[in-house]
Amino acid sequence: MCHYAAHVRRYFSALVLALLAATVVAVPAQAHAELKSSNPASGAALDAPPQQIELTFSDVISLPDGDAVTVTGPDGAKWPVTQTHAADRTITAKVDAAAAKAGAHTLEWRATADDGDVISGRFTFTLNVAAPTSEAPTSSVTMSAPVSNAPPATTPAESGGVPAWLWVVVGLIAVVGAILLVRRRKT
């Protein structure tokens, strides 16, 4: 019986080490890029509409299929968004805010993380005044300073399914259990 206990301890130790190794390898693979700052900032109150949107992430991102940036006014009208680019950790997009109205605006964003998953989020900012008419100079437009924390409504998109590391752990447990069962029957 003592011989059996030594085998069980050895296999249990191997199982614990395998689980630790699987966890250490799997945890970084689950991490997604997160929105770290934006301009305009989440919750910002602007005196003039922005002409460019800038989103900065915690990791390298790229543009997703479809729209990366959408700005919707208080009346439900979407602003035209052009020249959307992704470079390293930043997405920039030009916006035509000529039809902007005073009130709360929703900025929705989507990006493709380095691991291929699409992440998304949304936040609001407020315009204190409507967009200037075509006679008004556009050089007086000011933008809010970027914030250093992610907007509260930022949520990564669900990738669906069970994470691969969980299958590795279940497989390891099954293999060790089978080995222990076979060894026990032999003794």
TrEMBL record:
Transmembrane segments: 164-182
One family name in Pfam for this protein: CopC
Stretches assigned to the CopC domain: 32-127
Signal peptide extent: 1-33
Highest taxon of the lineage: Bacteria
Gene3D superfamilies attached to this UniProt entry: 2.60.40.1220
Keywords (A to Z) from UniProt: Copper, Membrane, Metal-binding, Signal, Transmembrane, Transmembrane helix
Localization per Swiss-Prot or TrEMBL: Cell envelope
Protein name: CopC domain-containing protein
Source organism: Lentzea atacamensis
